Amino acid sequence: MEIKYIKEHTLKPNEIERYGRQLITPDIGVSGQMSLCNASVLIVGAGGLGCPVALYLSSAGVGTLGLVDYDTVEISNLHRQIGHRESSKGISKAVSLAKTISELNSLVKINTYETTFTSDTAMEIIKDYDIVVDASDNVATRYLVNDACVLTGKPLVSGSALKWEGQVTVYNYNNGPCYRCIFPTPPPVETVTKCSDGGVLGPIVGVIGSLQALETIKILTNNKEGVLSGRLLIYDGMSAVFRTVRIRGRQSGCNVCGDKPTVTQLIDYTQFCRSDYSESAGKVDDRVDKTLIITVEQFHQSIQNNHNHLLIDVRPKIQFDICSLPNSNNIPIEEIDKKESIEMIEQLIKEKVENNNGDNNINNNELSVYLVCRRGNKSQDAVKILDEKLKESRDKFKLLHIKDGLLGWNESIDDSFPIY
Ligand SMILES: Nc1ncnc2c1ncn2[C@@H]1O[C@H](COP(=O)(O)OP(=O)(O)OP(=O)(O)O)[C@@H](O)[C@H]1O
Ligand SMILES: [Zn+2]
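Above are the sequence and the adenosine-5'-triphosphate SMILES. Below is the predicted complex in structure-token form.
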């Protein structure tokens, strides 16, 4: 005779075995586990935050996970994007992460979206999910995900991390604020520091991603009281300090969740934020006069021809110390307009002009001062500053910024130049 140990409509024996330690936790129980198993969560971004979120939510038994990412795995991702493997290099991050989590828990249904989450794709993707986790890395996507969540009435678990710090909060939950209630307008493009510029540590995104997974579990298991809505958790990894601060509540004047919303459907977020749905690939617009720009190919040609030149690398010292073009001088952009920097550049120019007069090997009498950075953004700012600051001696040299910078050098001239 078959003995019935398990009540009907509850968990199956393999689920009890797998989730046992979790389901005996106070405030989870069978009903909490059932809610997790029946839930669907969309994770936007399968990078530093998305990996730990997906690993913990799949192991916790969330029934369906959606993974959105347009990018492919690079070796430089692996120090922090722990859901990918070396063998996944070059393949879609969504697919790579799906493979890892399916090996962790084959009971979870996984949907992959190898595409950019945009105003055109968002609504169709989001409609099948209960909760959205923002694990992206750019402002345009943050506004897009927020508005899509408000318009469809879904809670949004938001996280961000940079250098040694990270933040987590929950938007659009239980009448709490949305992202726009806190940040009604996007920050100026130049004030946004990117992971690719500022760096980030693996354990920091690990902590923040784990906290995002935990908030998601709390929402799904209806542990309303503790949910980080209307509060922002800030983690300073260097000082080992967690702080939770109150943030503004829902604003009745908010453009999307307020009483008279002006945003009633998705808009063009790249235009609204004046930036792309990507962080590292961010397009660099030409903001300076054509006469101040040189391509990496032209620069390469000119140094091969032994053209008299001075090369100034305007990246932070920490990056310059890792790798740089031969014979370059490092003056970080933050310091370039300082008196000492200008004097130093004037001195270098003077030396070059004098050397040139006595050196028959140099082919062209005119000195060129080249400015370079990682991808041609900061060197544009530098060229504008120096054009102004060196006004008096401008007839002695040509001033040019190298379009596409060192990434361009790696791509078009020498791929052995390390990129990171
Ligand atoms: N709108 C979007 N649609 C789909 N994926 C997105 C979108 N915005 C960001 N992402 C993805 O979110 C992830 C963010 O993760 P993270 O910042 O750790 O990675 P990253 O872009 O690989 O960083 P880097 O290349 O600078 O090392 C990336 O994989 C990125 O492709
Ligand atoms: Zn709002």
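Residues 54 and 101 are 7 Å apart (CA to CA).
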